[in-house]
Amino acid sequence: xxxxxxxxxxxxxELALVGGSVRDVFLGRGHGDLDLTTDARPAQVLKLAExxxxxxxxxxxxxxxxxxxxxxxxxxxxxxxxxSYRYDSRKPKVQYGTxxxxxxxxxxxxxxxxxxxLPSLExxxxxxxxxxxxxxxxxxxxxxxxxxxxxPLRILRAARFTAQLDFTVTADVREAMTxxxxxxxxxxxxxxxxxxxxxxxxxxxxxxxGIALLVDxxxxxxxxxxxxxxxxxxxxxxxxxxxxxxSLTVLEQAIALEARYGLEGDLRLRLAALLHxxxxxxxxxxxxxxxxxxxxxxxxxxxxPGPG
Length: 308
What we know:
Number of strands: 11
Structural class: alpha+beta
Shape: elongated
Order of helices and strands: HEHEHEEEEEHEEHEHHEHHHHHHH
Radius of gyration: 21 Å
């Protein structure tokens, strides 16, 4: 990567590692593909990659992203940009920028708004992301209302990071999640499915934490309304205050048993545990299976056929 960074520098352009790859270095976690950002426009990135990259793809070029492979290393280089959704559109509008700090200011959370400038590896952390990482706090670089309005999917990402990293959202982030949850209606089903899948496959009891945050903030009313409906429904075993708490306990127990049966990180099992009692609210018997099917059809149908 140093060779590519020197190419950018020789032509007067900046290049920096950003996002999860920087965050995960401080967390001691492994990382997959690398995300980079630059002031160079996509056409310039393509030209600078000539003779360096073993393969190039342009599938995301309309959104400012160029994909590269060098040996076994895969990276995506994105021009400094911002994304925002019109009120009634599922497609974000992209605007290019010229400043690394401005680019970082528009990212979802401070822990993802750090950059390692290349080739020097100097850390850029204008919003205190490293301190929030140490404190396991999830907050936005600016007002959370502005961040979630610009990209409503970040509401789900807050719950996903809570699940994956055992972070706690700040009070203002929690309030903004509740206030702006209806904005998720403009986000594509595929993107919502991907975030929910990552949340459900989080390590340990992360899925329980993530689902609880979605329910407590009212976000689940928008994406998984069957779950909050379980609240106050009597648990027939009288071991929990309601079927909702019972369902979270079953999910927790199912996750704990996965390794014993060689099913670690099994999405089907976890969904079955979470959703097994959604027929308990006062609905007609014929609608019980339909409730399960509606969830699978809504988010996960492209991944496998519905339950038999």
